[in-house]
Specification:
By secondary structure, this protein is an all-alpha fold. The protein has eight helices and no strands.
Length: 233
Amino acid sequence: MDWNALIDFDKQLLLAVNGSDSLFLDGLVMTLTTATTWIPLYLALFYMVIRNNNSVKKIAFIVACAGLCVFFAGSLDDMIVKPLVARWRPTHDPEIGILVDTVNGYRGGNYGFFSAHASNTFSLAVFFSLLVRSRLLTCFLVGWSLVNCWTRMYLGVHYPGDILVGLLWGGIVGTCMWLLHQWVARRWFLASQYVSGQYTRSGYQYVDINVVVTVLLLTLFYAILKACYFIYI
């Protein structure tokens, strides 16, 4: 495999999808890529977990698994992988940095391999998708993760290769955390059977899943409104 050709293709692909002449998209992306924007979504997921688990131990363990998703998917990446690999972010790359479009001077840290945004969001999307077993929730959470991935390339702070590896690692971490949850749940917690049409196969109420989806959609609407405001400031 010709790694130099692959790296060159990665750079050209980034330049093809990076930035735009739209102030609206600039504002939208800056809002969507900000971690605090998604706090309501995390609270909605927490609400869903509380509503559908009947003991503090179950709730605490699920929250711990979600926390481990973030730690193994993103924190280890930032602390170990990025400085060890030391691949320049596009915005800092001596070869193409001058060609990369930025928004409000945002360039991120020096190194970008791999994308913690991609791995963090996808690990949570995979974990909760496997946990809840709702096709609707899965579609929205995976979509949420991919939107975050797009914002990182739009801003020029990650190559597509950084995103792809981040998604792969996030998927592995999310699946492993779900497997850990299942292993512990079979030994510590009494399994319940759900036959009502109001529940998923894993016992989560559809009405609570709808709350998460609604919060996600409202957050996107907020980002759009803020992007409109961004045009006029």
